[in-house]
């Protein structure tokens, strides 16, 4: 089993920068802004044939209530899972009372602790390390997470310490291999075949993180009754009924005009990227606030990305019957273009209706990846044409000839024929609905492409037979004689 390394420290000391450096990714959101990371972020470190699980955590030691208290609990959970803790400190500011408080909390935890003095570029390493020896920790390393200086030496020391504590010789590169409980973290980095990636998106404070915690059965992500609590996209693997899922908790997406902070802009970008890489999207709306224009805008982005979709209307408990009726009418009006998506009315806080969500996720995922045999597609196409003939275009009948599947996720159907590119949008929607009902493609958009049949002789001269050439010559001679007579 691979060792687990937790990165802890005060806000804005460079934990996420070091996490991205160690995992060679950009999974952790990084900006010059304190308290940016709030939830635990997992990744895999590979170093000279060895490997370890790395956990990025939120800043510790400043806020004691609200989101700060929840962040502190998340960091504590990471420390409890860790074999080794890397305490990251700021070499520019020196030892602070916050660093001393964190060291006091680490004592008695039973895990090894290394101090990484970050932002040490341009400073005397010996003096900087000597300053932080006052924390009472022997292993102090001067590094620059941004530029990578000293990071290799730090990780070498961590692995030596881990294997010494386990009373095992240091693994040679060719013997490196891992298994066991850390497979889930590998799944986060590169999802195996069969794993369903599910992005949970919506406006701020609609209950996305509460819903994820309810699905997981634990307080995995920070929840607080304040918009903007989640700032980064966090991927969480879990298994249910033998199926592996990757839940992606995302930051709330507001209207562009209201996004003013640079950090929020970065969070929104990460949320939209999560939609693009997901297999299925859970779009969460707040029933008490109603279905808003921003909900419809997010749904449009999901549809444009071609992702399977499940609509989740949260905070359904406590609504009066007339309020529920109004919400359903708003759904029909604003989400008329999402007739293929299943709707769930739930309470993430109390759990009502949540148990059926994964069933809809499975159905949508299966529909998005379904194979559509060509003979059955052609039979369905001819049945659709028999039920409703294509309109005329410039006095000529448009003739779809045959169809085949052009891709998955979403299903893409390619229709060939004469002038099919002139089919109006209304007839395209008719075909889309027909194919969806015929093949039970519920929960996923369907893309239809048209390809006009090419005339192989369009750009080639038509060779004449000998008889046609003689006749052509006679016609030309006759035309010349007639022209001469007219001149006389």
TrEMBL record:
Primary gene name: der
Alphabetized InterPro entries for the sequence: AAA+_ATPase, G_ENGA, GTP-bd, GTPase_Der, KH_dom-like, KH_dom-like_a/b, P-loop_NTPase, Small_GTP-bd
Protein name: GTPase Der
Domain spans labelled EngA-type G: 3-166, 196-369
Source organism: Halorhodospira halochloris
Superkingdom of origin organism: Bacteria
The family this protein is said to belong to: Belongs to the TRAFAC class TrmE-Era-EngA-EngB-Septin-like GTPase superfamily. EngA (Der) GTPase family.
Any one GO BP annotation for this protein: ribosome biogenesis
Basic residues composition bias: residue spans: 469-488
Signal sequence, start to end: none
Region annotation Disordered: where it falls in the sequence: 452-488
Keyword set includes Transmembrane: no
Protein task: GTPase that plays an essential role in the late steps of ribosome biogenesis.
């Amino acid at each position: 089993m691979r060792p687990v390394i937790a990165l802890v420290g005060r806000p804005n000391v460079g934990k996420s920068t070091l996490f991205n450096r160690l995992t060679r990714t950009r999974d952790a959101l990084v900006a010059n802004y304190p308290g940016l990371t709030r939830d635990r972020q997992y990744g895999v470190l590979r170093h000279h044939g060895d490997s370890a699980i790395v956990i990025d955590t939120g800043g510790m030691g400043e806020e004691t209530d609200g989101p700060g208290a929840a962040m502190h609990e998340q960091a504590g959970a990471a420390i409890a899972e860790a074999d080794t803790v890397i305490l990251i400190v700021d070499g520019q500011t020196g030892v602070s009372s916050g660093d001393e408080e964190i060291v006091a909390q680490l004592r008695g935890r039973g895990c090894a602790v290394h101090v990484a003095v970050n932002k040490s570029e341009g400073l005397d390493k010996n003096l900087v390390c000597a300053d932080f020896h006052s924390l009472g920790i022997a292993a102090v390393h001067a590094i620059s997470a941004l530029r990578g200086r000293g990071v290799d030496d730090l990780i070498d020391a961590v692995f030596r310490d881990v294997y010494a504590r386990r009373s095992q010789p240091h693994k040679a590169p060719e013997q490196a291999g891992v298994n066991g409980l850390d497979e889930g973290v590998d799944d986060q980095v590169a999802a195996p075949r069969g794993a369903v990636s599910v992005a949970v998106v919506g406006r701020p404070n609609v209950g996305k993180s509460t819903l994820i915690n309810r699905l997981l059965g634990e307080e995995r992500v920070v929840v607080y009754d304040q918009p903007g609590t989640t700032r980064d996209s966090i991927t969480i693997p879990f298994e249910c009924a033998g199926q592996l899922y990757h839940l992606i908790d995302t930051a709330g997406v507001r209207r562009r005009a209201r996004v003013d902070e640079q950090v929020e802009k970065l969070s929104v970008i990460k949320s939209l990227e999560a939609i693009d890489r997901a297999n299925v999207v859970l779009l969460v709306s707040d029933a008490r606030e109603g279905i808003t224009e921003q909900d419809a805008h997010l749904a449009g982005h999901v549809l444009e990305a071609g992702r399977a979709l499940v609509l989740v209307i949260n905070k359904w408990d406590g609504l009066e019957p007339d309020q529920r009726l109004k919400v359903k009418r708003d759904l029909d009006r604003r989400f008329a273009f999402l007739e293929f998506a299943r709707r769930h009315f739930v309470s993430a806080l109390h759990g009502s209706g949540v148990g059926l969500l994964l069933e809809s996720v499975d159905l949508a995922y299966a529909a998005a990846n379904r194979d559509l045999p060509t003979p059955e597609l052609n039979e369905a196409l001819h049945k659709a044409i028999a039920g409703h003939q294509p309109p005329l275009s410039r006095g000529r009948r448009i003739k779809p000839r045959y169809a085949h599947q052009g891709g998955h996720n979403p299903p893409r159907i390619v229709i060939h024929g004469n002038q099919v590119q002139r089919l109006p949008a209304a007839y395209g929607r008719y075909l889309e609905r027909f194919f969806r009902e015929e093949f039970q493609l519920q929960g996923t958009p369907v893309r239809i492409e048209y390809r006009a049949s090419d005339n192989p002789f369009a750009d080639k001269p038509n060779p004449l037979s000998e008889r046609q050439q003689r006749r052509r010559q006679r016609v030309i001679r006759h035309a010349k004689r007639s022209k001469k007579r007219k001149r006389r």
